[in-house]
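Chain A, query sequence.
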Amino acid sequence: MDFNLTEDEQYHKFYRLRDEQGNDYSDLLELHIIELQKKLHGDTRMDDWIRFFNVKTEEDLDMIRTKNSGIQRAKYMIREMSLSDSFREMVEYYRKKWMDRKSEDAYVYDQGKQEGELVGQQRGEQVMLFKLVANGSIDLHTASEQSGMTEEEFKEKMTEAGF
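Chain A, predicted structure.
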């Protein structure tokens, strides 16, 4: 409220619905009254919001120093809304470009991860075949057929892998 509802110093009050016996109707419904014109008591989150709602000039907006992310976002939005149409369009263009890039990066990351998992799986299968040939469990011809390589390619890869 932009006026004082009561004469006391408390600037934030809340009210609940009660029945005739004084029992709360529900804890899901409360009416919060914030009197913006009263003197602030400290540096609580509520005080920060009251300062924000009482801003009249850009200098007042700059004076609000807080770690409250909601107020920081609101300050940013006010500044953005006060830009000229051409600057606002430019900001939107770069924001869209940035978001598109983030989306593209996420897609490329997911594709790379899937491809890496496939290559790792194939590499694991090759190593298993190398071990089986090395310990004599299967012959070179069978292993090369299962890997989809010629016997010469298989021997070369097996040697590169240190078997």
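The longest helix spans residues 85-134. The two ends are 81 Å apart (CA to CA).
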